[in-house]
UniProtKB/TrEMBL annotation:
The lineage of its organism: unclassified sequences, metagenomes, ecological metagenomes. Belongs to the class-III pyridoxal-phosphate-dependent aminotransferase family. Pfam families: Aminotran_3. It comes from marine metagenome. GO terms for molecular function: pyridoxal phosphate binding; transaminase activity. The keyword Membrane does not apply. This is Aspartate aminotransferase family protein.
Length: 443
């Protein structure tokens, strides 16, 4: 591909003119946990696509299920009065899959941003059905990432995804995230920090007026915002506060559902049951754009006992419950039962973490190492005392060398994020560490 051809393509999260100087790395094939670019260079994909390819690239049963579904029924709508077999069957399977999270019903989407938008809308509607018409506000965490729809951007906790699109949705407020390395309290004890952030949530609910707040949304482990792992007490405290004030708890598990943290869901990792859960990505192993917002008992009861038009769902997508996507998800869930995915994510995550800790001991520029299971991050700084973020140029050079050494990682700001497929083995982990070692040496 030439630079000229690439100019036609405005890529997500990219300045359109950046391709003038440098066309994107063009990925042409993938096998197992490796990807191959147009120059024939093979790299271990320590990103798992974009957190989503949890079973790797060679999962035949999912590919076959997609091909068969495409052949049998390439599309039909799920709007009012019709549905497809695959979508119905999958909702039953998902109801069982998420029963330990207290989630019973499924609303299908085409991806993570759609799942978040769905949860936000259902949360507002839930309160309207109950006569709490003023409860429209949302509270979320700074550093949280909830996709790029206007709803998701409005609850997003990173200015980069907000500033150029303002004004955003009214009634959205953010509190500090339990991020030990940098927080407004200068608190380094994770448990105390969790308490301070929970206090902030309660304070914000009271400040807004509890009767105006519809929901609090959080990722059980913050992903794109820099893999921030709250103390185990945080989400249970949040649940308790939400209950006390009649606020719904939405878990955005677009990344954390399906095993990435070492538990099947992030909510389960923290022993918390949310009222709504956003899922996507791993649900179809990234092979088909698909998502599901799962709905908990309280919300289900409110909608299903309603008898007027307030309970009618005026929301949905052309591709909600796409029969090919549903087939991909059914095959993915079946496949997930045949491998010990969370166990492997936990074991390989510990190995990866030990290697990253070692890198921190070796390189002063590694300011912080964080993560759980197979979502890990190195935060790179130019000065460990001042914690000044490393320059973009040097971050790019870490990326380049690591890529040339055979490992694809994600550089986001001054973070190097790793979210490999959950099926990686110990040799793969060793390769990630040695390539990063070379990458860090290079600066
Ligand atoms: C937690 C979370 N929510 C929502 C989204 C948005 O998902 P999508 O990009 O599929 O719209 C993402 C994407 O990374 C995410 O990590």
């Amino acid at each position: 591909m030439t630079t000229q051809q690439a100019l036609n393509y405005w890529q997500p999260m990219t300045h359109p003119v950046s391709t003038r100087d440098k066309p994107p790395i063009t990925i042409v094939a993938a096998e197992g946990v490796e990807i191959t670019d147009a120059q024939g260079h093979r790299t271990l994909d320590a990103l798992g696509g974009l957190w989503n390819v949890i079973l790797g690239y060679s999962c035949q049963p999912i590919k076959i299920a997609i091909a068969e579904a495409l052949d049998r029924l390439p599309y039909y709508s799920s709007f009012t009065g019709v549905a497809t077999e695959n979508a119905i069957e999958l909702s039953h399977v998902l109801g069982q899959w998420f029963s330990d999270d207290g989630l019973l019903r499924t609303f299908y989407t085409s991806g993570g941003s759609d799942s978040v938008e769905t949860a936000l809308r259902l949360a507002r509607q839930f309160h309207k059905i109950r006569g709490d018409k003023d409860r429209y506000k949302f509270i979320s965490l700074k550093k949280g990432y909830h996709g790029t729809h206007f709803g998701g951007a409005s609850i997003n906790g990173n200015a980069k995804f907000r500033r150029n699109y303002e004004p955003l949705l009214a009634g959205c407020y953010q509190i500090a995230a339990p991020y030990e390395y940098r927080n407004p309290f200068n608190e380094t004890d994770p448990e105390k920090l969790a308490q301070l952030c929970a206090n902030m949530l309660e304070d914000e609910i009271n400040f807004q007026g509890a009767d105006t707040v519809a929901a609090f949304i959080m990722e059980p482990v913050l992903g794109a915002g820099g893999v921030i792992v709250p103390h185990s007490s945080f989400m249970p405290m949040v649940r308790e506060i939400c209950d006390r004030y009649g606020v719904l708890l939405i878990a955005d598990e677009v990344i954390t559902a399906f095993g990435r943290t070492g538990a099947w869901t992030g909510s389960r990792l923290w022993n918390t049951q949310p009222d709504l859960m956003c899922t996507a990505k791993g649900i179809s192993n990234g092979y088909f754009p698909f998502g599901a917002t799962m709905i908990g008992e309280k919300v289900v009861d409110t909608f299903e006992t309603n008898t007027n038009s307030l309970g009618e769902i005026g929301h949905g997508y052309t591709y909600s419950g796409h029969p090919v996507g549903a087939a991909a998800a059914l095959a993915t869930l079946k496949q997930l039962q045949t491998v010990n995915l969370p166990e492997n994510a936990a074991a390989r995550g510990s190995q990866l973490r030990a290697g990253l800790d070692q890198l921190q001991e070796t390189y002063e520029c590694v300011g912080n190492v964080r993560g759980v299971g197979l979502m890990q991050v190195l935060e790179i700084v130019s000065n460990s005392e001042s914690k000044m973020p490393m320059s973009k140029t040097l971050m790019n050079s870490i990326f380049e060398t690591t890529y040339q050494e055979g490992v694809m990682v994600r550089v986001s700001g001054n973070n190097i994020i790793m979210s490999p497929p959950l099926v990686i083995d110990s040799d793969h982990v060793a390769k990630i560490i040695s390539a990063l070692d070379r990458g860090l040496q290079a600066i």
